[in-house]
Specification:
Layout lengths: L1 H15 L2 E4 L6 H10 L3 E9 L2 E8 L2 E7 L5 E7 L7 H10 L4 E10 L3 E10 L2 E7 L5 E6 L9
Antiparallel strand pairs: 1-2, 2-3, 3-4, 4-5, 5-6, 6-7, 7-8, 8-9
Length: 154
């Protein structure tokens, strides 16, 4: 019985522990400083812990964005919500060719120091749902099947 309780507790902690909202006072000063320098016009700032990194959700000039930093303030990525019509034509063509009949539910431009710019999309057709990453030239970089019940990104 003790093992079952322990296992249940561990599972609850692990499922709930990947992304956790936190208050500004829990964010290290180097993270706040790096964020303020990179996004001086940010408003509606909200903080989360994502595994061991800090995710900051905010608006910049009215656009929904999020940026990730490690505890030392090193920038890891920025994700910007965009309209499907803002996608490069190469990506639109790749979606038409490789995902015919799929509907788009979310589109984001992702910038990282190591990969440069990529685009992420949630694509759905019937019960099939994928999160797909594309290069700027339309190449499919990663295709992840989303299981039923998995929440879409905020």
């Amino acid at each position: 019985m003790k093992n079952l309780i322990l296992l249940t507790t561990i599972l609850l902690i692990s499922f709930g522990g990947f992304t956790q909202k936190i208050t500004a006072d829990k964010v290290p000063a180097p993270v706040k400083q790096a964020f303020a320098k990179k996004f001086p016009a940010a408003t509606n700032i909200k903080y989360e812990m994502e595994k061991k990194d800090y995710e900051i959700n905010f608006k910049d000039k009215g656009v929904e964005m999020s940026a990730n930093f490690d505890a030392t303030g090193k920038w890891l990525e920025t994700e910007t919500e965009i309209k499907e019509s803002a996608l490069p034509k190469e990506i639109t063509a790749s979606v038409a060719k490789n995902f015919a009949g799929f509907k788009t539910s979310e589109v984001a431009k992702v910038e990282t120091p190591d990969k440069g710019t990529i685009y992420e999309m949630d694509l759905k057709k019937g019960k099939e749902r994928y999160e797909v990453q594309f290069s700027t030239t339309g190449e499919v970089l990663k295709k992840t099947l989303q299981k039923k019940g998995e929440d879409e990104k905020d």
